[in-house]
């Protein structure tokens, strides 16, 4: 509301009041006295004055309110102008921020592109560096491989030189060369039973040879504690070896002993002509007749009974009741090898066929031949459940459970005559009609496809072979028993103990060479 409107309103109010008063006075004029009229008029006039004063006050209030409204309107206009300016400024700032944001995004995109280029360059540099390092490592490996092969060849060369020096009766030089050969093979070799090194260490003064008989030694049975063993010969002799002494237990030439099993107080001995005898360590003998003849093998079964094997039959013998229990007449074909596994007994016949008897049920079944070759020896390894089968061709087949051929070992030139395990060194030993002993390192059985054996040639026929701890016992056709240590470290120690000093520097330069730094190995 503006000021003009307020004045008109006040005028209307005053006019209304005057008209009302006049009307009222006209109405009262006829009934009231003059005095009364005067009093009333004064009162009315007074009210009019008060109304006028109130109208004046209202007018002033209205004027003040209009002024306040005008001031507020002016302030609102100013604020509106200011707000408008602020809005325009904010929009300008927003546009500027948008431009800066776009510039920042462009800069970020450039930075990301530059970073990706840098990362790609870094990765490429790393690949190049890795290639360079790989080439460097490859060169180093090649050098190391060449050095290693060189040292292995050096070990073999020194081993051969040691054997040659021994043949020329220069034992001191032979031992020095053998020890040096072992050092390089031990440090750089992949097979500790490398042939040339082993032959250098197994010298004549390390091998022990006993000559207890003039007849072939057919069986050697080692005690469970590996402290003693018993042998039997074709001349009816049974001898015991204990505390490095050999003593005769029994001797009678009418017996031809082919197999033995030791007990705590005596020996069960199998006679080729058909009897099983119990001989106490004091020399007393009790003989039990067996059906037929041509008995060649005596084995102890898992249940404690004895199995006596002839060419056409197998007899089970109860050592408690001292009577034969079962005679297997179904073995009509001639057989010469038998093996006992965890679950069965295997019979290998001379025509190449195989028979199996289950230990749990006693049932027997015949199988076809093993590729037409005749089995001449067998050895079962309870640790790995593997069966080693020696063939007439000189090969040794390694069979897994179920008769699966795993590996084939070649080295012998004639039929395999016997095999045994050296558990302590994880070796398989085999002897053959080629008069050779072969040592197979079973640690390498899973490492290489073709395990190369270390061989040693005897002067006479080896008849049987056994292991005592880390030592080997071999019975010969002439009645001799050969024994030697098979542990390479023990052989090296024995060689070192026999030396006062190793190779001199001049000897080193001659046999090893000046490119390898001189070392005192004693």
Entry summary:
39% of the residues lie in helices and 30% in strands.
Per-chain topology:
Elements: H1 3-29, H2 34-167, H3 171-188, H4 195-201, E1 208-210, E2 217-222, E3 228-233, E4 237-242, E5 245-251, E6 257-262, E7 266-271, E8 275-280, E9 285-289, E10 295-300, E11 306-310, E12 314-318, E13 323-327, E14 335-340, E15 344-349, E16 354-358, E17 364-367, E18 375-381, E19 386-391, E20 396-400, E21 404-409, E22 416-422, E23 427-432, E24 436-441, E25 454-457, E26 462-468, E27 471-476, E28 481-485, H5 488-497, H6 505-511
Antiparallel strand pairs: 1-28, 2-3, 3-4, 4-5, 6-7, 7-8, 8-9, 10-11, 11-12, 12-13, 14-15, 15-16, 16-17, 18-19, 19-20, 20-21, 22-23, 23-24, 24-25, 26-27, 27-28
Helix pairs in contact: 1-2, 2-3, 2-4, 3-4, 3-5
Mean pLDDT: 82
Main sheet: strands, sense, barrel: 4 strands, antiparallel
What is the quaternary state of this protein?
Answer: single chain
User: What would you call the structural class?
Assistant: alpha+beta
Q: Helical segment tally?
A: 6
Low confidence ranges? none
Name the helicity range: 25-40%
Strand content: 25-35%
Tell me, briefly, the overall form. elongated
Lateral strand order in the biggest sheet: 1-28-27-26
Q: How many beta-strand elements?
A: 28
Alpha carbon gyration radius: 59 Å
> How far apart are the first and last residues' alpha carbons, in Å?
128 Å
């Amino acid at each position: 509301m503006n000021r003009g409107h307020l004045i008109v309103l006040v005028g209307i109010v005053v006019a209304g009041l005057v008209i009302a008063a006049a009307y009222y006075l006209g109405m009262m004029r006829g009934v009231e006295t003059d005095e009364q009229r005067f009093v009333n008029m004064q009162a009315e006039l007074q009210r009019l004055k008060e109304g006028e004063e109130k109208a004046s006050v209202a007018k002033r209030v209205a004027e003040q309110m209009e002024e306040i409204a005008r001031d507020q309107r002016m302030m609102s206009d100013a604020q509106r102008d200011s707000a408008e300016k602020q809005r325009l400024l904010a929009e300008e700032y927003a546009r500027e921020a948008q431009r800066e944001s776009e510039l920042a995004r462009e800069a970020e995109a450039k930075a990301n592109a530059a970073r990706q280029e840098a990362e790609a360059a870094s990765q490429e540099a790393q690949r190049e560096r890795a290639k360079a390092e790989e080439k460097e490592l490859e060169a180093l490996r090649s050098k190391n491989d060449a050095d290693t092969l060189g040292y292995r060849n050096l070990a073999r060369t020194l081993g051969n030189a040691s054997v040659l020096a021994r043949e020329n009766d220069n034992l001191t030089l032979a031992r020095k060369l053998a020890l040096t050969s072992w050092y390089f093979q031990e440090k750089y070799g992949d097979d500790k039973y490398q042939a040339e090194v082993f032959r250098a260490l197994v010298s004549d003064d390390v091998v022990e040879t006993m000559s207890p008989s003039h007849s072939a030694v057919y069986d050697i049975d080692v005690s469970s504690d590996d402290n003693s063993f018993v042998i039997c010969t074709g001349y009816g002799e049974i001898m015991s070896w204990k505390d490095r002494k050999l003593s005769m237990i029994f001797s009678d030439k009418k017996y031809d002993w082919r197999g033995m099993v030791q007990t705590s107080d005596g020996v069960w001995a199998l006679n080729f002509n058909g009897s099983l005898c119990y001989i106490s360590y004091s020399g007393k003998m009790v003989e039990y007749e067996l059906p037929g003849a041509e008995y060649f093998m005596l084995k102890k079964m898992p249940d404690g009974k004895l199995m006596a094997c002839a060419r056409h039959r197998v007899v089970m013998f109860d050592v408690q009741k001292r009577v034969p229990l079962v005679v297997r007449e179904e073995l009509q074909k001639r057989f010469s090898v038998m093996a006992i596994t965890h679950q069965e007994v295997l019979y290998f016949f001379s025509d190449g066929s195989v028979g199996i008897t289950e230990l749990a049920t006693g049932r027997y079944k015949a199988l076809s031949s093993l590729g037409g070759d005749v089995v001449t020896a067998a050895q079962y390894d309870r640790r790995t459940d593997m069966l080693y089968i020696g063939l007439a061709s000189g090969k040794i087949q390694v069979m897994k459970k179920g008769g699966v051929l795993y590996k084939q070992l070649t080295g012998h030139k004639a039929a395999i005559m016997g095999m045994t395990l050296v558990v302590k060194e994880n070796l398989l030993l085999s002897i053959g009609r080629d008069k050779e002993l072969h040592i197979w390192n079973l640690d390498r059985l899973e490492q290489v496809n073709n395990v190369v054996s270390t061989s040693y040639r005897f002067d006479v026929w080896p008849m049987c072979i056994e292991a005592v701890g880390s030592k080997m016992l071999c019975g010969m056709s002439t009645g001799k028993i050969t024994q030697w240590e098979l542990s390479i470290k023990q052989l090296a120690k024995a060689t070192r103990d026999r030396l006062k000093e190793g190779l001199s520097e001049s000897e080193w330069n001659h046999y090893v060479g000046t490119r390898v730094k001189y070392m005192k190995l004693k």
